[in-house]
Fold this protein.
Amino acid sequence: MPETIELDLDAIEAAAKAPLSFCSSDHCMCSDCSCVAANNRCWWKALNREQDNRTQAMGKIFRPSFDTGVTMKEHHYAVTVNWIGNTGEGTASYTAYQRDFNVEAPGKAPILGSADPAFRGDPERWNPEDMLLASISACHKLWYLHLCAVNNVNVLEYVDYPVGRMLEGDGQRKGHFKDAELRPQVIISSQSNLDLARRLHDDAHHECFIANSVNFPIRCSAVIKHQD
C-alpha cells in the first residue's frame, strides 16, 4: 500500500469540538463551504488546510482519518416499500399474487420493483438483487470520485458494469450472495497519475459504507485509461 500522509489530528479534533464547528449548510463536505463555521473552525476546512500544508510526494495518498475520539455521526434513512401485487385473492396461493412493489420516499422518483423472474417477478422491474448490486457499485464510485478529487486525479468518465452471484439455497443452507465484482471503466485526464488512480480503487473499497456492511467478498477489476 502507498504511504499515507499523516494529518494533525489534534488540530482537526479541536476544530470539530469548537463552538459552531460543524457546518450547517448542505455543503459541509465541500471545500467551498461558506457557512459561519468555515471561519477557521469548520472541520472539513481544517482537513483541506492540513492537506494544503503538506507536500504530496508522488505515490502518496491523502486519506482523511476521522478517528479523533469524536462520536461517530449517525445517519438515518427511511423509505416506503408498497406492495401492489394483490390481484384480488391476496396470497391465497403461491401463484395467486404478483410480486410487484414500489419503493417510495418524499421528493424522489419511485423505484419500480419486483422479484427476480426466477421467482415469478416482472423482468422489467428492479429486483432486490439488482438494487443490492447497484448500491455496492454506486457507493464505491462515490468514494472513488471523492478520493480522486482530493488526490489530484481528474476523473472525466466513469461507467461500471458490476456482476454478482447468488446461491439459492438447498433446503439446509439459506440462499445468499456468493460474491460480487465491480468492473468500472474510467477515463482520467492526461495529466493525472495512472498508477495512483488504480490504487485509489483499493482505498475506495475499504471506505465504502455498503461494502463494509455485507458479508461476501467484493472484487474490483477496473480499467483506467488516460483521455485521448
In short: The chain has a mean pLDDT of 80. Strands lie at 80-83, 101-104, 111-113, 155-159, 163-169, 174-182, 185-188, 218-220, 223-226. Helices lie at 9-17, 43-52, 128-150, 194-207. The longest helix spans residues 128-150.
